[in-house]
Design goal:
Blueprint (H helix, E strand, L loop, with lengths): L1 E7 L6 H16 L3 E5 L12 H5 L8 H13 L2 E10 L6 E8 L5 E6 L5 E3 L6 E3 L12 E4 L2 E5 L8 H8 L5 E6 L3 H19 L2 E6 L1 E3 L5 E3 L2 E4 L5 E5 L4 E7 L1 H10 L13
Parallel strand pairs: 1-2, 2-3, 9-10, 10-11
Antiparallel strand pairs: 1-16, 3-4, 4-5, 6-7, 8-9, 11-14, 12-13, 14-15
Helix pairs in contact: 1-3
């Protein structure tokens, strides 16, 4: 069985400081069995305001954040799913929130741009977000074969849209990876039920990698990075603070559950006459 790791952080606006912390955890993880590690949304950069994502955006394939990931993947001989990195677009005032997947040779082998942007006013709160002011919507799903299995990619707010996850399942996805910076207010009520639901609905592993705590922007994130198996059981979890978790991906169990409990083959859509 292959193992996978997930890192949890409380990132700030200092890119070098954030990457130094990531490096510390990557070194520890490299001493174990994990063949792939997941980083949180905005792992390298959580600024005071979203406009700073534009000024610190990189071009795919170059820039200090990506150079760090390339060097780390090669040094530790491990695949890295690099949370999200702001990448430049044709519009100079907007970026994409992009997950890049690096293999153990430091090559970019996949990219997913966040599809669902967090434009909300939180109930009973002055807290609001409008990601579409700075970010462009992604347009395509991404599935990739890795040493730990077939992975589908999603990011944070995508979690609330089961249709996206059903489309990933149609490509025989075994594991869904979700970097996140879920807010504390919504996360304390919705996070765990949503993560477990996506695992149960699609009989797949869910691997989440989260931001946790207070950030310079005033945002408080929920943490609770977890690895959930296809039966909806939490295999590993870190509630608060920085650190990492690991878990084995049991493909025999995954296949057995899908064969004995074939709900995915029983999907019947009834339309209006």
């Amino acid at each position: 069985m292959a193992s996978i790791a997930s890192i949890q952080l409380t990132s700030g606006p200092n890119i070098q400081a954030n990457l130094l912390e990531v490096s510390k955890y990557l070194e520890e993880i490299s001493k174990g069995k994990s063949k792939l590690v997941v980083l949180p949304e905005n792992f390298a950069f959580m600024p005071e305001n979203d406009v700073s994502f534009v000024t610190n955006a990189e071009v795919e394939g170059s820039g200090p954040i990506q150079e760090f990931i390339v060097e780390s993947a090669v040094k530790y001989k491990i695949w890295i799913i690099a949370g999200t990195i702001p990448l430049k677009t044709k519009n100079p005032n907007k970026v994409t929130s992009s997950t890049l997947v690096f293999d153990d040779k430091g090559q970019i082998v996949a990219r997913y741009d966040k599809i669902h942007l967090f434009d909300v006013q939180l109930p009973n709160s002055d807290e609001s977000y409008n990601e579409s002011e700075v970010f462009e919507h992604g347009k395509n799903l991404k599935i990739i074969e890795t040493p730990v299995g077939i992975i589908g990619l999603a990011i944070c707010y995508d979690l609330r849209f089961p249709e996206l996850f059903r489309l990933l399942h149609s490509s025989d996805v075994e594991i869904i990876v979700l970097p996140s910076a879920f807010t504390e207010q919504t996360g304390k009520v919705h996070w765990e039920p949503l993560v477990k639901s996506r695992a149960i609905e699609n009989l797949c592993y869910m691997v989440t990698s989260c931001q946790d705590g207070y950030h310079i922007s005033g945002r408080q994130t929920h943490g609770n990075s977890m690895i959930v198996n296809p039966w909806g059981q939490i295999m590993s979890k870190i509630e608060s603070g920085s650190g990492f978790i690991e878990s084995e991906i049991n493909h025999k169990q995954l296949t057995s559950i899908r064969e004995k409990f074939p709900v995915l083959k029983h999907i019947t859509l009834v339309g209006n006459k």
